[in-house]
Amino acid sequence: MKKILLFILCIILLLPAGCAGNSPKRYQAEFLTLFDTVTRIVGYSDSKEEFTELSQSIYDELEIYHQLYDIYNDYDGVNNIKTINDNAGKSPTIVDSRIIDLLLFAKTQYIKTNGKVNVAFGAVLKIWHDYREQGIDDPENAALPQMTELEAAAEHCNIDDVVIDEDASTVYLSDPMMRLDVGAVAKGYATEQVAKHFEAKGVTSLLISVGGNVRAIGSKADGGNGNTNPWVIGIQNPDKINENTELFSVEISELSVVTSGSYERYYTVDGKQYHHIIDPETLMPAEYCTAVSVICRDSGLADAFSTATFNMPVDKAKAFINSIDGVEAMWVLPDRSIEYSANFENYKQN
Ligand code: ADP
Ligand code: MG
């Protein structure tokens, strides 16, 4: 059954390699069932069979993370983030070390970003999520949450109430009203762990994109002539009405590019769009920028920083990014002007 399902969901495209002989060819696989988004794997291989096998094993690894980090669904025999939420205020949940590691990582990013990305913000995020879903289903009656409702939920977002016992491998939410929401970090963190796993197994050139959360293993090994070139990644134009789907491209090797944007998930109330990244200070969708793209090695960091900097005034976000070695970012502002961190433009394709 699983095989049949994967056959339907996985599209392997054989694209022209642009080179004669038996040089490696470019392959691409797409999966539609992970992290509520499209997963795309691009690589160069001598045979379709070899590439299919590799992309299938990447899918299998990612699927484990997908189940562990799911906040909405149960899986047989799996204690996941939803299980932890269901047991808030009741009892600690024994979990896989990959959940402990994600939450320890998320706590570190909370501290680094001064709380701008907070996985314990789920009580507030659930309210926005429910209003958004309802507003998308029934646009005529789309409404905004009451501020009093948001403020009451915000009382239950203290990350210190996420109690992690590494020795016992348990997580306990000591506030019964608390909910974890790992949407801001889970995709990037999972992508990073899976990329590292396959690097350790000897994969030297591959591109993994989980919903635009891009992680490059090595460079692009094309041509079969021993040459390597950087991967070329388009930065999406936030205006879908515009014909150009990309603003420009960046060239990267062994790096991640992750974008957070207000155009990704939103609903409309009285003609105004309300998106899915919520500023912990105002409890409202942040309005400092339209999109922010972060480039750095670690895709988990890039994901955490893209959400966190989205929630900062752009001058503060820029100072924050410039203070960290090996991290660059660019912002598309509401007026569509673009701001860059100190060295981002070095990655721009000429
Ligand atoms: P996406 O995953 O949609 O590409 P992000 O990485 O920016 O974009 O994550 C957005 C998700 O993170 C939201 O859907 C929500 O689940 C969660 N989120 C929104 N605001 C915050 C916040 N301030 N802190 C932590 N998580 C947040
Ligand atoms: Mg993020």
Number of β-strand runs: 16
Instruction: Please identify which CATH superfamily of the largest domain we are dealing with.
Output: ApbE-like domains
* Largest sheet features: 9 strands, antiparallel
Indicate the percent of residues in helices: 25-40%
Overall tally of structural domains? 3
Q: Overall 3D geometry?
A: globular
Which ions, cofactors or small ligands are bound in this entry?
adenosine-5'-diphosphate, magnesium ion
Structural summary, described in words:
This protein has 350 residues and is α+β, with helices and mostly antiparallel strands. The termini are far apart. Helix 2 packs across helix 7 (186-200), helix 7 packs antiparallel against helix 8 and helix 8 (299-310) runs antiparallel to helix 9 (314-322). It contains nine helices and 16 strands. Helices cover 32% and strands 24% of the residues. It has three domains: 1-69 and 183-224, no CATH class; 81-173, ApbE-like superfamily (T-fold), CATH 1.10.3980; 230-350, ApbE-like domains (T-fold, Roll). The protein has a nine-stranded antiparallel sheet with strand order 1-2-3-7-8-11-14-15-16. Strands 4-6-5 form a three-stranded antiparallel sheet. A hairpin with a 5-residue loop joins strand 15 (328-332) and strand 16 (338-340). Magnesium ion binds at residues 184, 260, 303, 306-307.
Task: Put the structure in a nutshell.
Helix content is 32%, strand content 24%. It has helices spanning 2-9, 48-68, 81-86, 97-112, 122-137, 147-154, 186-200, 299-310, 314-322; strands spanning 11-15, 25-34, 37-45, 93-94, 162-165, 170-173, 206-210, 213-217, 231-236, 246-252, 256-261, 266-269, 272-275, 291-296, 328-332, 338-340. The chain is globular, with a radius of gyration of 21 Å.
